[in-house]
Write a structure and sequence with these properties.
By secondary structure, the chain is mainly β. Helix content is 0%, strand content 53%. A hairpin with a 2-residue loop joins strand 4 and strand 5.
């Protein structure tokens, strides 16, 4: 499985994808808030979303897996 990881620590303020969505590399998948800045997290690979592991209000750390993509 391909995975999308958080690129920084922060609180999830918006989830932009859901299971079943087809996403492209570079597409925003969710938005984190850190130090009063909104930072989009982008997919590092293309594919179909299988699972979203983060919800609005969750705190994630740098490197945490937030989205799982179907393997080609």
């Amino acid at each position: 499985m391909k995975q999308v990881a958080a690129n920084m620590a922060g609180t999830v303020i918006n989830v932009l994808v859901q299971p079943g969505d087809e996403i492209n590399e570079g597409q925003d998948v969710l938005v984190l808030e850190s130090m009063k800045m909104e930072v989009p997290v982008q997919a590092q690979a293309s594919g179909k979303v299988v699972e979203v592991k983060a919800n609005i209000g969750d705190f994630v750390n740098d490197g945490d897996i937030i989205v799982v993509l179907e393997e080609d």
